[in-house]
Write a structure and sequence with these properties.
CATH class of the largest domain: Alpha Beta
Structural class: alpha+beta
CATH architecture of the largest domain: 2-Layer Sandwich
Radius of gyration: 39 Å
Shape: elongated
CATH topology of the largest domain: BirA Bifunctional Protein, domain 2
Strand content: 25-35%
Strand order of the largest sheet: 28-31-32-38-37-36-35
CATH superfamily of the largest domain: Bira Bifunctional Protein, Domain 2
Helix content: 25-40%
Distance between the termini: 88 Å
Largest sheet: 7 strands, mixed
Length: 827
């Protein structure tokens, strides 16, 4: 919202010594975000005067049309001057703005008398853009007749030097999208009286006997108030007054015509969007209703839109003629032949307009106000103000107003008078609370120690005592709130789970992984690319009510989509080898209903905490990594080695090792991973994750390099297996006995099964078992493979007796033969 300071001063008595930056500081203290303070026409130096075009000669001997203009700039400035101009949107007798020689325009553009196109151009006829008044590039700035005499100073008339505040309005403060709302805030900030311009009807002539056009609302929930004022015999050629055009330009809007300019001006002034229909084109009754699904409407931006049954439209007997509260239709547009105007002002439900604007990807000045909440009672006052301006500058006859309205039951809030002081932690008297709530438009009654508050109709965001407390504290001043730092409890630091998560991050960083944070949002396209089907728990995602992107409307159930997207982005920027790591929460399950509403005067009770926790879905912490490129780079020492699935498995085991856990591997079957290069990671026989090479279709769908590897593990489940008290590993000084064996096993038997059988058969003397070779060849039967293991035996109580290691070895082999159909190679 752009707000000229001069306009604000007309609505509230701001002290004369306050500059635009002083005013911005007051608004910032009140909780509004002022992004900048600009000066209209900043950079203009020298003389700008009004000029009357007396004669125009077309010079046709050049590549582009050039006009040699004789312009009267007043006797005090040399009378008639000859000026070269290429624009063609002005004609003889028009009033224009002239920059005389010696003037410097914004951007350091100096004006001088100079020889050009065979003539001496003694000045410059200016456009809005050249004066830094706006972005209009249609041509020369032509002023309405009556703006002044030739030679008059154009600075004041153009508002050059006036300061403009650029304010970013948050969704809960829709009232600040108007001069009325900002003036009220400044009246409170400067403690000066405020006379509400939206609280009284403008003086209008008595309605003519002919009667106004009828109106209706077929959906009173979506359109609770619909008004229509009718004006006939309007002069379509009437021009907007210069002061109105100047203010529209300062607010970032382009003047178009009197009817359109008046509706925009009143919207900026009071905050109520209006729309002017050409009554001569309307068939039957103007009304608000739901659209018929599949109908089409061409809006004022000349885009043909297909309507949805949930859209709210303005229609007549011919069908939809405008998107309610968003944009009018092209067929009913007010144009240069319009003499009868139907001026619509209504109240539309914010959620209806917000959904419709999002559906059609059409955000307008009107929709931005309606979706934030417009004053429920303002429509007739705003339309009266607009009708008065139209009649004053465009003439015509006023036929009156028709309206339809649903009952409005105001919200009543009961609040303890001491609550603002309790929440703020500072003295705030009941009298101060009442005064501040009255200042923002609330009606307050005292009932003992309680206050009965009816919020102002433009403050639909005030719905419970917490909102009222925030409003009181905001106006008291956030800078006055006491600052008391909480004292840390003695002996408390990181929890064990936090320490273990940090240990995992540090361990992975020592192995070359780079930890990243990705957005926790996913979409169907990413999950489809990972081949995750609808029955997978990773797809039981919660849909966001207001997603940042329609392509990612869910909270993630897995870390892989964001991590793989980060890897693809880095590869696209030149990284060829990388290991990315992320530790973060995923969301699994459904969101329950909130059955409690904790107060602000104390922490929730145990029952309330349990109810809140029961509403939330499961949110375990996972760890995931993606590996791309070379695991070992090439160099003078020799060739490099490409990353393979075994590196992902090793990284997963290192995560377990960092937690002090022993992990086991088994053949995995995850749709995201290659069926033959995927390992299931277990801790104490419980599955905690998966690691390996991604499925070729996943790699192709997500645009990743070939043989990309990844892992994902449930870190919370692993931490739960870490014992609270851990002992240092026992160091045994007795000698070890080493035995190597080679077993021929069928291909369908997992190596992990063989390892478990060897451990079970060997008994407690077996200290470790390690696979060191896999062989397939002529000596091995088809459908089988040879697995070579290094067995290490040791007795913690003393030196192994002769034959103990051999006996344990034979028992291990025998168990492998029974459990895994293994055959000792060479036997």
């Amino acid at each position: 919202m752009r707000a000229p300071v001069s306009w604000l001063r007309e609505l509230v008595a701001i002290p004369a010594d306050q500059t635009g930056r002083d005013i911005a500081e007051r608004l910032i203290r009140a909780g509004l975000e002022v992004e900048s303070v600009e000066s209209i026409g900043a950079g203009v130096q020298g003389e700008l005067v009004l000029g009357r075009v007396m004669q125009v000669e077309e010079l046709t001997d050049f590549k582009k049309p050039i006009r040699w203009c004789q312009v009267d700039v007043g006797a005090a400035h040399g009378g008639v001057r000859g000026i070269i101009c290429g624009a063609r949107n002005f004609s003889v007798a028009d009033l224009v703005v002239i920059a005389l020689p010696g003037t410097v325009l914004p951007g350091g553009f100096a004006i001088s008398a100079r020889q050009t196109y065979g003539k001496v151009s003694d000045g410059m006829i200016c456009s809005e853009r050249e004066l830094a008044l706006g972005d209009d590039h249609d041509g020369i700035l032509v002023l309405p007749e009556g703006s002044g005499l030739p030679g008059a100073d154009a600075r004041e008339m153009l508002g050059i030097g006036d300061e403009v505040l650029d304010i970013a309005v948050t969704p809960d403060r829709g009232y600040a999208l108007s001069m009325r709302g900002l003036a009220r805030e400044l009246a409170i900030a400067y403690q000066v009286p405020f006379e509400d311009p939206g609280s009284s009807l403008a003086d209008l002539p008595a309605p003519a006997a002919q009667g106004p056009a009828p109106c209706d609302s077929e959906d009173l929930d979506a359109c609770a108030l619909f008004t229509l004022r009718t004006i006939v015999d309007f002069d379509p050629a009437a021009a907007s007054p210069n002061w109105m055009r100047r203010r529209l330009i300062a607010c970032g809007m382009r003047p178009i015509s009197l009817a359109v300019d008046v509706t925009n001006y009143v919207m900026l002034e009071l905050g109520q969007p209006l729309h002017a229909f050409d009554l001569g084109k309307v068939q039957g009754t103007l009304r608000a209703s739901r659209a018929r699904s599949g109908d089409v409407l061409q809006t004022l931006d000349h885009v043909t839109r297909t309507l949805d049954g949930d859209d709210l439209v303005i229609c007549d007997d011919s069908g939809a003629i405008g998107l309610a509260g968003t944009m009018g239709g092209a067929l009913m547009e007010v144009d240069e032949s319009t003499t009868a105007i139907a001026l619509e002002a209504a109240w539309f439900a914010p959620e209806v307009i917000a959904r419709m604007a999002r559906r059609h990807r059409l955000s307008t000045e009107a929709s931005r106000r309606f979706e934030r909440g417009v004053d429920r009672t303002l429509a007739p006052y705003a339309s009266a103000r607009a009708a008065e301006l139209l009649l004053r500058f465009g003439g015509g006859r006023y036929l009156g107003m028709t309206a339809v309205e649903a009952p409005d039951v105001p919200n009543r809030i009961t609040m303890r008078s001491a609550l603002p002081a309790d929440v703020a932690g500072m003295p705030i008297s009941a009298e101060t609370t009442i005064e501040l709530l009255n200042a923002v438009g609330c009606m307050v009654e005292v009932s003992g120690d309680d206050l009965l508050v009816v919020p102002a109709p433009w403050r639909r965001d005030l719905v419970d005592p917490a909102d009222l407390v925030e409003e009181v504290v905001r106006l008291v001043g956030y800078e006055r709130l006491p600052s008391t730092l909480p004292a840390a409890a003695m002996g408390h630091g990181l929890t064990m789970a936090q320490r273990l998560r940090r240990r995992v991050g540090m361990a992975m960083a020592s192995r070359g992984a780079i930890e990243v944070l990705t957005y926790p949002f996913v979409g169907d396209e990413q999950l489809d690319g990972l081949r995750i089907d609808a029955s997978d728990p990773r797809r039981s995602c919660i849909r966001l009510a207001n997603p940042l992107s329609d392509e990612q409307p869910f909270l993630r159930g897995t870390l892989l989509p964001g991590l793989l997207a980060a890897a693809r982005r880095n590869i696209g920027r030149g990284a060829d080898s990388l290991v990315l790591l992320e530790i973060g929460a995923v969301v699994r399950g459904e969101l329950g209903q909130l059955t409690v509403s904790p107060g602000v005067d104390g922490p929730p009770s145990g029952v309330q905490w349990a109810a809140i926790d029961g509403m939330l879905p499961d949110q375990p912490t996972f760890v995931a990594a993606v590996l791309v490129g070379e695991a070992e780079p090439a160099g003078w020492w020799g060739p490099g080695r490409a990353t393979d699935w075994a590196d992902a498995v090793a990284l997963a085991e290192a995560i377990g090792g960092a937690l002090g856990l022993t992990t086991q591997r088994a053949r995995g079957s995850d749709p995201c991973f290659h069926p033959g290069r995927c390992a299931q990671i277990r801790v104490n026989e419980a599955v905690v994750g998966v690691a390996g090479e991604l499925h070729p279709r996943v790699i192709e769908a997500l645009g990743l390099p070939e043989r990309t590897c990844a892992l994902e593990m449930d870190l919370d489940a692993m931490i739960a297996e870490v014992p609270e008290v851990r002992t240092a590993p026992e160091v045994i000084a007795h000698p070890v006995a080493k035995e190597d064996i080679a077993l021929i096993v069928p291909d369908e038997v997992d190596c992990a099964q063989v390892v478990r059988a060897l451990r079970e058969g060997a008994g407690p003397l077996l200290e470790s078992v390690r696979l060191f070779d896999v062989y397939r060849g002529p000596q091995i039967p088809t459908g089988s493979r040879s697995l070579a293991f290094a067995l290490r035996f040791r007795d913690s109580g003393g030196t192994l007796a002769p034959g103990q290691a051999s006996q344990a070895r034979e028992s291990a082999v025998a168990q492998a033969e029974r459990a895994c159909q293994a055959v000792l190679r060479g036997a």
